[in-house]
Amino acid sequence: MGGYLIYFIIIMIVPIWAQMRVKGSYVKYSKVPSSSHMRGAEVARRILDANGLYHVGIEEIRGHLTDHYDPRSKTVRLSSSNYHGHSVAAAAIAAHEVGHAIQDQQDYAFLRFRHALVPVANLGSNFSWILILIGMFAGLSGFVLLGIIFMASAVIFQLVTLPVEFNASNRAMDQVIALGVIRNDEEKETRKVLNSAALTYVAAAAVAVLELLRLILVYTGMQRQD
């Protein structure tokens, strides 16, 4: 019982802690103007053009920290605060999303793999728990196993996301330094924004792996009873 309590505390606290780190870092550095005083949209455009990605568009999108790169429409979408913001945080996040566009251009293997996993991962996320719950309540270990297999696809997606995100952040740092978007004394702050954002993906992957391991233990227990 104590082990389960610790487990549930971990899977609840770790994601919350990661989100708090992201929000805290973003709020702090969104108040720090960058030396270049470029808007996030301008930072994105400069990096895109410097890498020959003239065809990639930049759009403003509603929401808070809803920034992303859409590989289908070849568009970098920045939330309003980052699209118009002149801060270190806005520059870091804009550069990170452009990092994904550069990955797309260079056919980065992990990005391609993640894109290929999207339909399978979505299917796994939607149906895994239905199968697992049916199997557990009905005592049908085969359903639990099938649910675990579906869930494993979603977990693999989470794990593959890690190198994609870290690589995009590394590319972002290289670009903002090389193009003079930030000064040397701003590198530490920019890296903090990027690292705190990466924590959310690390936390999500850790929780997903823990949950998968727990369900595998449940399945093996059912097999022993059979």
From TrEMBL:
It comes from the Bacteria. The chain crosses the membrane at residues 6-22, 129-157, 198-220. The keyword Membrane applies. This is Zn-dependent protease. It comes from Cytobacillus dafuensis. Keywords: Hydrolase, Membrane, Protease, Transmembrane, Transmembrane helix. The keyword Transmembrane applies. One of its GO terms (biological process) is proteolysis. The lineage of its organism: Bacteria, Bacillati, Bacillota, Bacilli, Bacillales. GO terms for molecular function: peptidase activity.
